[in-house]
Amino acid sequence: MAHRIAVIAGDGIGTEVMPEGLRALEAAAKRFDIALEFTTFEFGNCDYYLEHGKMMPDDWFEQLKDFDALFYGAVGWPDKVPDHISLWGSLLQFRRQFDQYINLRPCKLMPGIKSPLAGREPGDIDFYVVRENTEGEYSSIGGKMFEGTEREIVIQETVMSRTGVDRVLKYAFDLAQTRPRKKLTSATKSNGISITMPYWDERVLEMAKQYPEINVDKFHIDILTANFVLHPDWFDVVVGSNLFGDILSDLGPACTGTIGIAPSANINPEGKFPSLFEPVHGSAPDIAGKGIANPIGQIWSGAMMLEHLGYKEASDAMVAAIENVLSEGDQNVLTGDIGGKGTTKTLGEAIADAI
Amino acid sequence: MAHRIAVIAGDGIGTEVMPEGLRALEAAAKRFDIALEFTTFEFGNCDYYLEHGKMMPDDWFEQLKDFDALFYGAVGWPDKVPDHISLWGSLLQFRRQFDQYINLRPCKLMPGIKSPLAGREPGDIDFYVVRENTEGEYSSIGGKMFEGTEREIVIQETVMSRTGVDRVLKYAFDLAQTRPRKKLTSATKSNGISITMPYWDERVLEMAKQYPEINVDKFHIDILTANFVLHPDWFDVVVGSNLFGDILSDLGPACTGTIGIAPSANINPEGKFPSLFEPVHGSAPDIAGKGIANPIGQIWSGAMMLEHLGYKEASDAMVAAIENVLSEGDQNVLTGDIGGKGTTKTLGEAIADAI
Ligand SMILES: CC(C)[C@H](C(=O)O)[C@@H](O)C(=O)O
Ligand SMILES: CC(C)[C@H](C(=O)O)[C@@H](O)C(=O)O
């Protein structure tokens, strides 16, 4: 039976990189004889909002819940719809309603890509950011008082539950267990954020007891971002709250040269709901419509999707194809952000061919 | 009449860099004929806590409030006292009780210092982070429910007031006004943190109306940290909430080579209470006691203090002395973190001599 994949391209360059993601997946499916069935959805973008006054139809959950995975582009177009409305009306709904409580983001310096960090070579940077993806700083509780006056005050809650914290920690420790260095770094800020963050630290200590082989350390988020730049080789698996994971999983890929190639998986590990795979980059209104966006983040996200569906070999082949095309370094193939003169399509086609 | 300076060295390397900070200040005071009177306080460190069960005496506010400035080292020693207790019992009290609502942190690539970013030279990175320093994510409101059970939940508020947001924005816009590039970047996360951060954006838009000459942009904090690494030359004045400012003012200095040299000023602009000057680095238990900590962050903070007290020329001379000693690059003088074999003392003495 075919795996049913829901495809939502979203806004801006999401719609440009998606075809290349699909092209690469089709190549891998053909080579490894995997049956994938793609169904495209036209909602979850800002034009849909302008037409319908909402980002998705009321029955989106019903429409999507039985798919095996969601393959997502990028969402947001602030000139049409404010970001907090477009994002809370789509991506953040999926993460929460489909209980995709793990956001997994590899940071790997790839061959042929120049790191902005002096003297760093492929192999020097290779770690995962594991981000809590449903609670924490991204709560929807709070409000405004004395609106419009000098006394105006706005409050928003950060919410951490034992369930929420423990399950992401467990996932991160389990992942560290599978890695040669068996190292886990926790992102905290318990010196300044004095209620939720000391709780996070407590749960890390508690979980660590069950993983005596794992080498655990922690850094406050401020110095941790500094260490990403100064010592990216220190890291193996880095686990953080929703906000801290968000920051680290943009900063980490930046240290590996470009946000354009970074993939991510929003995972419901129990498989009760579909998981969602999307590039780390956003919809990039500034370069949208030019056909120059780097499709690697989308393609690599497709590779993560295949691994999630149980096709490790096909997934590895997709990543190897990306690495090969990057190593070859053909100026006419690579996109501008990684030093070439090619287009979304030339790069996407080269990778599909390599698969 | 002499300016009265309260000196609190704190913990760890705070006690090692402080003498060099004072040495440099005394040299500047002598050369520019400034009367400074230093009074040392033995509280505000973790040993004091172990002895008294609190970080400071109950009358600390009375003892300190009439000083012209506080010159601070670094506080925290997690093996003795948990960070959230030591910090909330000292530094964070000063910031809040003395209404030091501006935290000003220059990020400048200095001569002789190697940036971890490839190909960046002195002049390429030169911006200020202006951090809100009294509210935001560093609230003390919140708590725990269902403690010790599976249903355990922890909540902490982020609080932004119009007063708090507007005054830090005003300071940042005024600062941008004095700079040749007249550029201001706002750090936000209004796509994910959907109540407080859209409010922050709103106030930025509102304030910008009063500064038509300023070129204003904004980035979400995730991509902003990425851009610090990819495009540090884009920034001139960056303004952020308490947490975002904290992160950016460690990451920025890391991009300029080392946290060890970065200074900061915690300012009460109205002068109703004393302002506080401290290095950005912490107490660094890992290198404490070895006499190898870099004293430049402390010395440069002293320069910021002189500027605050009205001695711009003396302040500039201190910064020039730092630049000269760094340019000379004498291995026997510089500390290990910036490529030398010297000590806290050799570097401190060289800078005092240069002044
Ligand atoms: C020690 C800590 C509470 C403090 C902060 O987060 O404000 C420090 O990181 C700083 O930047 O001054
Ligand atoms: C678009 C935004 C809400 C989102 C997030 O902050 O989670 C994005 O930055 C990401 O990392 O997936």
Automatic annotation (TrEMBL), chains A, B:
InterPro entries per record: ICDH/IPMDH, IsoCit/isopropylmalate_DH_CS, IsoPropMal-DH-like_dom, TTC_DH
SMART domains the record matches: Iso_dh (SM01329)
This enzyme's EC code(s): 1.1.1.83
Catalysed reactions, semicolon-separated: (R)-malate + NAD(+) = pyruvate + CO2 + NADH
Molecular functions (GO terms): D-malate dehydrogenase (decarboxylating) (NAD+) activity; magnesium ion binding; NAD binding
Any matching Pfam family: Iso_dh
Domain of life according to the entry: Bacteria
Keywords: Manganese, Metal-binding, NAD, Oxidoreductase
Enzyme type, top EC level: oxidoreductase
Stated name of the protein: D-malate dehydrogenase (decarboxylating)
